[in-house]
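User: Predict structure, ligand 2BA.
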Amino acid sequence: MKLLITVVQDDDAQKLITSLMKEGFGVTKLATTGGFLRAGNTTLLIGVDEEKLDAVTGIIEKVCKSRKQVATSPSPVAGASGMYVPYPIEVTVGGATIFIMDVEQFLKI
Ligand code: 2BA
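Assistant: Predicted complex:
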């Protein structure tokens, strides 16, 4: 069995959960915060048999589209006045960041 720790945008989370549950996959949703943007995102814990791994990653890829977004830099640079001035940057958000791990044991007691 594998555990997928999957970080997605809040905007994609509900549709992804619905799509996964419809196909019979179990999901746990965690409200998380990205370290770079310091904005909310969603982390899903998905436990799946190894032979169904491709089916799950396929669903994630289909639902979670990446897009560009202008965000305020979380690490402001010092301006001429010596003050720290935030500046806009373009980042790619969406898609999904997936950590795939082996599960040693899976128990439901
Ligand atoms: P955040 O850390 O808020 O990052 C959001 C997006 O900002 C990233 O999307 C990336 O496009 C951009 N970004 C991140 N660090 C950057 C930097 N130093 N310079 C320029 N742009 C930067 P993703 O890479 O798709 O990551 C989405 C979310 O997945 C991240 O949100 C974080 O919550 C999680 N994540 C990504 N890589 C991770 C890792 N190695 N370990 C743990 N969590 C990770």
